[in-house]
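#onboarding

Welcome to the new folks! Below is a worked example of what a typical request in this channel looks like: someone posts a single protein sequence, and someone else replies with the predicted structure as tokens. Don't worry about understanding the tokens yet, we'll cover that in week two.

Example request:
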Amino acid sequence: MLTEFLHYLQIQRNYSKATITAYSRDLQDLAEYLLITDNKQLFEEGAVQTLEHRSLRNWVGDLAGKDISHRSIKRKLAAVRAFFTYLKKKGKITQNPIASIKLPKTDSKLPVFLKESETEILFEEVVFPETFEGARDRCLLEILYGCGLRRSEVQKLQFTDIDFYTKILRISGKGNKTRIVPFGNHVYTAMEVYRAKSAELGLNLSKTFFVKPDNQALYDKLIYRIVQKYLPMASNVARQGPHVLRHTYATHLLNAGADLNDIKELLGHSSLAATQIYTHNSISKLQNIHKMAHPRAINPQTQ
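Example response:
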């Protein structure tokens, strides 16, 4: 049943590979828990029909008692909910044992981003080696910040996705939704330098744009290592993965006066709610400006 469900997510629901992998892992974790605690087989049709609400409630309680974030528990519940909804749709169960279990509230965390002065340090003061890897790494960072791409999007960026004349990228994001993202002169220059260094080594960028010296595409951990190599040279932000540059892109656009709906489209968010988290940082900046600039912003008695 698990294989059929994952195939359904891929073909009919068009879920990303990362989401399908996470759902599979979450369901297998639940199956292991149920086997140990209730001697129940989650993926056997006869056994899953007898699964009780109590067992799933105990599982959620067990997760809550561990060092697992509310966000992770919420995702695990989403995977299980989708699985049982699928089973009921297929007529394999008559009652959904997870239907009345509420998702826990997710802790609201503000996105981590670089200050504009720190991005200046990163791209104007940090020294990138004059090698193929140095040119590639700088180009990678320029695109992450200059276009606000997700790690997965920059990893699968194809040469044919780039229009060097009009300076736009055609990005296939979550759910295979395509969006247009413009890029500026700094990104363009970094691309040209990277292409020249690639040509010197005889590398072929006609398919995957970012490659290793063996012409193989970059893998997840290598992209993280590249970002984590250079960000500490410019900033001491707590988190230093590729998504920090995406957050920085959105925050800097908003601070410069870009419309929130336009930022939503550039980021490829499905709803405005996902983009609104950046407004907190913008509001904080406006509050500080107001305190410093407005003659009646501060109570004279507190000065």
